[in-house]
Design a protein that fits this description.
about 110 residues; Serine Threonine Protein Phosphatase 5, Tetratricopeptide repeat; 6 helices; globular; mainly alpha
Length: about 110
């Protein structure tokens, strides 16, 4: 039986320029707590689509989980800029909250919207 992870890996190979496929792959890595691979996939997402606010949000949280707080804050900052460009006010508010508490939280949670 083929796993969801394997399906997304194959799709990413076949459709390397599809940000949604890479986001799906990142989500599967996240479920498995494969944080480095999730971060790599999410970096691909925001390279392909610099307005993908959910990817910036998840990337920041993934980087924070990896102990890369400066990079996490940079991702959320870029996500806020993307949200301002696209009018995604709810995503902007959420990332502003993550950014504001990133110095005090030991383990930020993923947004479950």
């Amino acid at each position: 039986m083929t796993s969801r992870l394997e399906i997304f890996q194959e799709m990413a190979e076949q459709q390397p320029d599809d940000a949604m496929v890479w986001y799906g792959l990142a989500s599967e890595y996240t479920k498995l707590e494969r944080w480095s691979e999730a971060a790599t996939a999410l970096e691909r997402v925001v390279t392909l689509n610099p307005d993908y606010t959910a990817a910036f949000q998840m990337l920041g949280t993934t980087l924070m989980t990896l102990g890369k707080s400066a990079e996490a804050r940079q991702s959320w900052t870029q996500g806020i800029e993307a949200a301002n460009r696209t009018g995604a006010w709810k995503a902007r508010q959420h990332m502003e909250g993550l950014l504001a508490t990133s110095d005090t939280e030991s383990e930020p949670g993923f947004c479950q919207e």
